[in-house]
Structure formats: structure tokens, C-alpha cells
């Protein structure tokens, strides 16, 4: 490592320690304050980064000795040397080719002229390179692609910024990505004010994002005064970046509410759309800012169907935002790109509160002709537990969804639950009053065949006690006699097909069927979602509690 390199590294360390005495000593010893060190910054850049104005002032003065910022950027010593023609030492006796006078024209005359021309060019180029080596420009970019003024602007060092500007720092110098000091200064109104007074361009865009300083302020500024200063200096209110987003969109997206309200008050365009078709209202809604959404709607912001904001609210359980959007005119029954309505998503998530909210506000139920699945089928497929399913199912049934609806494949919710091995949900549906013989025909797989295939004896016993008909006798049953019946499903089934149910069991089936038929015609007094309508009717019969449990819970049967 050279001595010059060592002294520049030591200068950087002294700046880091704020050691002005040793900084001045090293500068007198020839240290270069503009040299980029192994730390990635020069001594000037580090003094600005740390916010040490007294050290920065000393460093800038040392640069003035070699660099004349008011003379077009030409070093003083270089300009002096250029005015005196000198011949290098030891070469006084040599003769340049252009001093040789050729007599007459020769074939080599043209080549000689070219040679002399390029010789002069190389001589001048060498002088320029020599001057460049001696040049000390404190405003060059460092290894981080930042000039000292970028650090002063970004970190709010007002005194350092004033020193840099006093010594001729370019006001709009860009980083590698085209970010100017004004872009970086949005955290400090004082810095923004200084830069704008020095004629910084408020509409200069970054190379990589296309953002102006107002875009950055909309995202990061903590003080509305920054936006005020930029607009007063001529910043374009509705400028768009490469994603076609305006400062208002970015303010809403970044939850910078004060800036957003200010931009709206300055008549920013509310319904401009970015490259994905999103508006400021969309960003305000997805960030769940009720007051901003309400204000935007009052000021004329439009709701776009393709934003599917109500779907977003349902998926994220934003009920208040959903209510605000519905009151503003959002379509409750619009289908998203997958063909699903907000109600579908609410049922899929088994969110009983959102399901009730949507139905209460007029959401349409699924149509039988244009849906592959029905409401309860969606709940059966997505519920993780019977407790989760029960809450959603009772809300749906209360609002008129049939417990025996078919899906596209002629499956009832009970059949689907058995097919998916969700036996607890199947048990719940049966006890709620699902018709166990629904859909029995030659081309439909019925509950009996499903239960038989699953080899779940306790489920089959529940189905039979709920009224499942076993006639005609299933094929492949064991022949009589049936002595010492065990718990095997086929043995139990063979015995049951040839022996009638008890009178007690038949009475339960009959009473339940009568009550189920009267569920829709009987006006129960608003049963809670913790109790089914069938349970409510059983309770209103006035039967003894033991008989009510027998009818409602099948408490005499083995647990599934």
C-alpha cells in the first residue's frame, strides 16, 4: 500500500473520530480529501455523512487549493502550466517531425502529414490526462454512487448542505439510479426549502422508477409542508411513475394519510388508474382506511367493478369497510375472475359473521342452474371441524338455504360429507334434519352405499335410525341364520334387513319426519345459531327432556 493511500485512509479515520486537529495536519501533509477510500466514501463524503460541518469546511477549503470551481472546472496549476511551452528534460536536442521541412512532394508526404497530426493529438491528450490526475473534485460520486450532497440531503444536515452549495456542488446531481438530492430530502422540509431556492428541479424523475420528488414525499414524508413546498415550486400534481401511479395513489398505498388528504384538497385527479387498473380508492380500501375511503367517495372517486374490493374485504374480514363500500354502491353479487361471489368466499372461509352480514345486506344465494356447488357444499368442503361448520350451516339454513340441496353431481351435503370422510359433519347434518333418503335412484350413489363403502358401522346405524330405507335388500349379504351377531357391518346389515326396527325407533323416525316437514311453515321465534330449528321445534313440543334428547341427539346410539 502506497504512502499516499495510507495518508488518505488515516484522514478518513480522523474524520470518523471528528479529530479536527489531525485532519488539518494530514491535509498539510498532502492528504487528498476527495479520494474514495476502502470504506467506499471519501473524507468529504464521510464528514457530510456524519454531519461534521467544521471538518467539512476544512476539507472543502483544502480542495480549493487545487480545484477552481469558478473557472470551468480547470485546475489553477494546470492552466498556468498550459500557458508555458516546455520541452521535457533531456530532450532539448531532439527535433519533432513537424520541424523538418520537406523539399517538394514525395510519395511519403501524405503519411508524414498524418503522422504529425496524430503526434500533436497524443501530446495534447497526455496534457489533459495529467491535469485530470491532479484534479480534486469534492462533488464526485463515491463507491455507493452518491455525492456528498446526497448524504447532506438524505440525513438532514443543513449546515453541511450549505457548505457544499457554497463550494459549487451541483444541485441536481443524480445517483446511478437518477435519484437527486431533492428526492432524498423529503424527510426534512428545511432541506427541501434550501434546494428549491437553489432552483432544484421538482419534476426530475429517477431513472429506475420514474418517480419525482413528490412521489417520494407521498411515500415517506412526515410533514405536509414538504408537499406544499414542492407544489409551490412547480411540481406536477398528477405526475406518473413507470407504474403509472400518481403521488395520491402512492400516499394512499403507503398509508401516508396527511399527504393524501392534502393532495385531494389540491384537486388531484381521483380516478386515474395505474398499469393494473388500480386507483387511489383501491389503495385506501385495501389498507382499511375508512375515513379516507369515505372522503374519496364524497369527492367523486368511482368504484370499479374489476377491483373486486368487496371480495378483498371478505377474504380479510374487513366488515366495516365492506359496509362502507356497499353503502357507496359496490355490487354485492359481482363475480371475480374465478367466478366466485363475495358470499362464496365468506362461506369458504367459514366466517359466519361475514356470511350473516352479506345475507342480511341482500347478497343473493347461489343459483341452482349456474353453480356447480351450493352453499352448504362449499362449507362441507372447507370446514376443518364440525364446530366451525355448524356455525356457518345454521346461518345459511336460517336464511333459507336447503339442507338437502343438490350440487352439479346430484350430491347432497350429507352425501358429500360422507364421501370426504367428514363423519362428524355428516352426523351433524342428520341430527339437524337432513333427509337421509334424498336422491335415491338407480343413477345416484346414495347414503347407504356410501356408508357401506366406508365400513363405518356407527354411521350406518345412525342413518338407519334416522329413517334410511334398506329395501330392496342389498346384494352380497350373508345368508341366515344370524346367530351371535357381532359388530361387523355386513353382519349387522344382514340382520337389520330381515328384522324390523323397534316401535320406539319407528316412532322417533315418524316424529322427526313430521317436525322436519313443518320447519319451513312453522314460524319459530328467531332461534339462535347455537340451536337448530329442528331442536327448537322439539323443545316446543313440551315432551320430557329425556324424550327430547332421544329425538334430537340419538343418545341411545354409539358415538361416531
From TrEMBL:
Coiled coil: none annotated. The keyword DNA-binding does not apply. This is SOCS box domain-containing protein. Residues 498-557 form the SOCS box domain. It comes from the Eukaryota. Keywords: ANK repeat. ANK repeats lie at residues 144-176, 209-242, 243-275, 276-308, 310-337, 338-370. The keyword Transit peptide does not apply. One of its GO terms (biological process) is regulation of apoptotic process. GO terms for cellular component: nucleus. InterPro entries: Ankyrin_rpt (IPR002110), Ankyrin_rpt-contain_sf (IPR036770), SOCS_box (IPR001496), SOCS_box-like_dom_sf (IPR036036). It comes from Hermetia illucens (Black soldier fly). It holds the Pfam family Ank_2.
Amino acid at each position: 500500500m502506497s504512502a499516499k493511500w495510507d495518508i488518505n485512509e488515516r484522514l478518513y479515520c480522523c474524520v470518523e473520530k471528528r479529530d479536527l486537529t489531525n485532519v488539518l495536519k494530514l491535509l498539510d501533509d498532502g492528504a487528498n480529501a476527495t479520494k474514495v477510500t476502502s470504506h467506499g466514501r471519501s473524507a468529504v463524503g464521510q464528514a457530510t455523512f456524519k454531519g461534521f460541518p467544521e471538518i467539512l469546511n476544512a476539507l472543502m477549503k483544502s480542495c480549493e487549493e487545487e480545484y477552481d470551481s469558478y473557472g470551468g472546472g480547470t485546475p489553477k496549476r494546470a492552466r498556468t502550466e498550459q500557458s508555458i511551452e516546455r520541452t521535457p528534460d533531456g530532450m532539448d536536442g531532439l527535433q519533432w517531425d513537424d520541424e523538418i521541412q520537406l523539399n517538394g512532394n514525395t510519395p511519403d508526404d501524405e503519411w508524414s502529414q498524418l503522422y504529425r497530426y496524430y503526434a500533436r493529438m497524443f501530446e495534447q491528450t497526455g496534457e489533459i490526462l495529467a491535469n485530470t490526475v491532479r484534479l480534486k473534485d469534492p462533488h464526485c460520486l463515491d463507491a455507493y454512487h452518491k455525492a456528498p450532497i446526497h448524504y447532506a440531503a438524505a440525513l438532514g444536515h443543513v449546515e453541511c448542505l450549505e457548505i457544499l452549495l457554497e463550494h459549487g456542488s451541483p444541485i441536481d446531481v443524480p445517483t446511478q439510479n437518477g435519484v437527486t438530492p431533492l428526492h432524498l430530502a423529503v424527510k426534512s422540509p428545511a432541506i427541501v426549502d434550501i434546494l428549491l431556492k437553489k432552483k432544484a428541479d421538482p419534476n426530475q424523475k429517477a431513472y429506475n422508477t420514474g418517480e419525482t420528488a413528490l412521489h417520494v414525499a407521498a411515500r415517506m414524508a412526515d410533514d405536509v409542508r414538504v408537499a406544499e413546498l414542492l407544489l409551490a415550486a412547480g411540481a406536477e400534481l398528477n405526475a406518473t411513475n413507470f407504474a403509472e401511479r400518481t403521488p395520491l395513489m402512492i400516499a394512499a398505498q403507503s398509508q401516508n394519510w396527511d399527504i393524501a388528504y392534502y393532495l385531494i384538497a389540491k384537486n388531484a385527479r381521483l380516478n386515474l388508474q395505474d398499469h393494473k387498473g388500480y386507483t387511489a380508492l383501491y389503495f385506501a380500501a385495501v389498507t382499511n382506511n375508512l375515513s379516507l375511503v369515505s372522503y374519496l367517495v364524497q369527492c367523486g372517486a368511482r368504484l370499479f367493478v374489476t377491483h373486486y374490493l368487496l371480495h378483498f374485504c371478505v377474504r380479510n374480514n374487513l366488515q366495516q369497510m365492506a359496509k362502507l363500500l356497499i353503502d357507496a354502491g359496490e355490487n354485492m353479487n359481482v363475480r371475480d375472475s374465478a367466478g366466485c361471489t363475495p358470499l362464496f368466499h365468506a362461506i369458504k372461509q367459514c366466517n359466519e359473521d361475514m356470511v350473516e352480514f352479506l345475507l342480511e345486506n341482500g347478497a343473493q344465494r347461489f343459483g341452482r342452474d349456474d353453480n356447480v356447488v351450493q352453499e352448504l357444499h362449499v362449507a362441507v368442503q372447507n370446514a376443518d371441524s364440525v364446530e366451525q361448520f355448524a356455525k356457518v350451516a345454521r346461518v345459511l339454513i336460517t336464511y333459507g338455504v336447503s339442507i338437502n340441496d343438490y350440487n352439479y353431481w346430484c350430491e347432497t351435503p350429507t352425501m358429500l360429507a360422507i364421501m370426504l370422510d367428514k363423519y362428524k359433519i355428516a352426523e351433524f347434518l342428520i341430527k339437524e334434519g337432513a333427509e337421509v333418503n334424498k336422491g335415491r335412484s338407480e343413477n345416484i350413489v346414495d347414503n347407504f352405499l356410501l356408508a357401506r363403502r366406508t365400513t363405518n358401522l356407527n354411521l350406518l346405524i345412525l342413518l338407519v335410525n334416522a329413517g334410511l330405507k334398506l329395501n330392496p335388500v342389498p346384494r352380497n349379504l350373508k345368508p341366515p341364520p344370524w346367530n351371535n351377531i357381532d359388530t361387523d357391518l355386513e353382519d349387522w346389515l344382514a340382520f337389520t334387513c330381515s328384522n324390523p326396527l323397534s316401535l320406539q325407533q319407528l316412532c322417533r323416525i315418524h316424529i322427526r319426519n313430521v317436525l322436519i316437514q313443518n320447519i319451513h311453515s312453522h314460524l319459530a321465534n328467531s332461534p339462535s345459531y347455537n340451536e337448530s330449528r329442528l331442536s327448537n321445534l322439539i323443545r316446543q313440543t313440551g315432551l320430557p327432556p329425556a324424550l327430547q334428547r332421544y329425538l334430537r341427539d340419538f343418545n341411545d346410539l354409539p358415538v361416531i
